[in-house]
Amino acid sequence: MIEHGRLSRTQEYLLAVAAAVVTANAYYIHPIIGDVAEHFGVSDTRIGLVPALNQLALAVGILLLLPLGDRYSNKRLTIIFATGQTASLALMTVAPGFAGFTAGSTLLGFFTIAPYLLPAYASKRVAPERLGQVTALLTAGVILGILVARVGAGWIAEHYGWRTVYWIATSLMIAVTLALPRLMEGGERESARVPYWPLVFSVFGIARKHPEVLLSGAIQALNFAQFIALWLALALYLTAPPMNYGTDVVGYLAALAAVSILSTPRLGRWADKVGPRRARFILALVQLAGISLFYPLGGSLWGLVVPLVLVNLVGPGVDVTGRMTFLLLAPDLRTRLTTAYVVIMFIGGGIGSFLGTAVYDMAGWAGVCALLVMSTTVLSSLCWLGTRLGK
């Protein structure tokens, strides 16, 4: 089906679709978090543990499992991890209590490795001058998955109940898992002679030798933390007094992320020309401007549209440019460099998941907006530092 060697354009797009499906699973909770909390009878702070533990388990899973991509076939690993995701989603779907639902979500995070294997897999099969474009395409697939998950989950939960969301998600994962053996070509050399634990611990040594990945990881940790915190808090804010909207409205607002699907590939090509570090700093400044508008415009649904469009336009570009700073390094290191980057990123996501709901519970929408402004200010400062270190 797929031409051996370089990726065909068809394969690039199919991999982006697969990335969308396997990524979506962590984001169905965003618009329906209030419904799930009400169903299980837990507080806003406690329901935040579901996405927080999912993100932290993902960081652990990436640390322990993603380095295997430098040892075993990416095709084999992707199929195994997708199967683990499917089983975890099934547990969430039928869980009778909050503990079982949280356990399923945590296991789901641990097995969500495929979206982070795919960029390393693709980077070995594209010409260097197309790396930014293909990385951006896969990122656009991830954005599509997040978009469909949040929009679809909000609408489906409003009309058919939140459990229906997870029945559909499980079915989609079964379809993707069955398709992966034909979608991904094999032919990769495996290095089983490398012992497992030295391979895992080598991530720390490699990261120390390439401090760029640590800085990029810290920047993306902040970027991802504020993304998660924003959407969880926004779902609680919009569905509570005085706003009193339904989960479908939260999903409709999430549809604004569609602008990212159009902008991210173009930002990748632009970053190929101007350089990833300079591009990242410019994008961070635009993001800071957008974040600063959430409080003054947050009193109305239409007012929220302006900052949401700005943030969705440039936020994924910060991730793309961050990955570009290290994906041009030696091919045999890329999976482990990606491991370090994504582990740091999802530690940030776990912290953001908890803070988004906890700060909203304590200080409301105003407190969340203040948290986001502080976070983006630090992010922009680190991006500026990256332009200095890159010279």
Question: Which tags fit this structure?
Answer:
391 residues, mainly alpha, Growth Hormone, Chain: A, 17 helices, 0% strand
In short:
This protein has helices at residues 9-24, 29-40, 44-47, 49-65, 74-94, 98-111, 114-123, 131-160, 162-183, 196-209, 211-238, 247-254, 258-274, 276-291, 294-297, 301-327, 334-389. It is an all-alpha fold and 391 residues long.
Compute the average pLDDT.
87
Spatial extent as radius of gyration? 20 Å
Parts with pLDDT < 50 across at least 5 consecutive residues = none
Structural class computed from helices and strand pairing: mainly alpha
Give the strand tally.
0
Instruction: Say what the CATH topology is.
Output: Growth Hormone, Chain: A
Instruction: Give the CA-CA distance, first to last residue.
Output: 44 Å
Largest sheet: none
Provide the CATH architecture.
Up-down Bundle
- Share of β-strand residues: under 5%
Helix content: over 70%
Shape category = globular
CATH class category label: Mainly Alpha
User: Helix and strand string, N-terminal first?
Assistant: HHHHHHHHHHHHHHHHH
Tally of individual domains: 1
User: Helix count?
Assistant: 17
Q: CATH superfamily membership, which one?
A: MFS general substrate transporter like domains
InterPro entries: MFS (IPR011701), MFS_dom (IPR020846), MFS_trans_sf (IPR036259)
Organism: Qipengyuania gelatinilytica
Keywords: Membrane, Transmembrane, Transmembrane helix
Pfam family, one: MFS_1
